[in-house]
Specification:
Layout (H helix, E strand, L loop, with lengths): L5 H22 L6 H20 L7 H16 L12 H20 L2 H25 L6 H16 L6 H22 L2 H10 L1
């Protein structure tokens, strides 16, 4: 187990990945899905509030980082017209379901239920970007997902007492970020499609 202060290192690494994504968004080489990134900002920031209320402490820095960074990326996507990704029906459906998950948080006001609702909302928000990453990985910045996975792994390695409030969100981030990192950096979707053609 790592000392809890390693969470600061994890947050710094995660922030570097987000800064790279932000840079690429401003350049127009990365095209964030606005529905995903808005919900990726909202759900973790609500989860952060829950974690603070549940006494998670310094480990909640991961959740704040993975919420505040997407908020900046969402705002940056309006800066460069080349950074706009076309929103589809799938985006609206997932966004609506994600909002429903966040409403569950407001209605229940129960820590664990709110955390689960927040993770479900975040996961539903991820669907459009996962789909986009599979089809068009060149529209994403893989370093952001690699950094987020490292951030989550470091946070989990600092856990001395396992509770849902402490491990749920970092574990979820580790899984989604690792999947996205592999799909984007490995260009898995185009490789699978090319193999089917041959």
């Amino acid at each position: 187990m790592l000392d809890v202060h390693f969470v600061i290192l994890g947050a710094a690494i995660g922030s570097v990945g987000l800064v790279l994504y932000l840079r690429d968004t401003l350049r127009g080489t990365t095209q964030p899905n606005r529905v995903t990134w808005l919900m990726w900002a909202t759900a973790p920031l609500l989860a952060f509030a829950v974690e603070v209320n549940e006494g998670v402490g310094l480990r909640s820095l991961l959740t704040f980082t993975v919420g505040f960074g997407p908020l900046l990326i969402f705002l940056a996507s309006f800066r460069n017209p080349a950074s706009v990704w076309q929103i589809s029906r799938l985006d609206y459906i997932c966004g609506g379901l994600s909002i429903a998950g966040l409403v569950a948080w407001v209605v229940t006001q129960h820590g664990t239920v709110a955390l689960v609702a927040s993770i479900a909302a975040d996961a539903l928000a991820a669907v459009p970007t996962i789909h986009k990453s599979w089809r068009w990985p060149e529209t994403e910045t893989g370093a952001a997902y690699v950094a987020a996975a490292i951030n989550a792994a470091i946070t989990l390695l600092t856990v001395d007492r396992v509770t849902s409030a402490v491990v749920a969100f970092p574990l979820y981030i580790l899984l989604v970020a690792t999947f996205e990192a592999v799909v984007v950096t490995g260009r898995i979707g185009p490789r699978v499609r090319a193999a089917r053609i041959e």
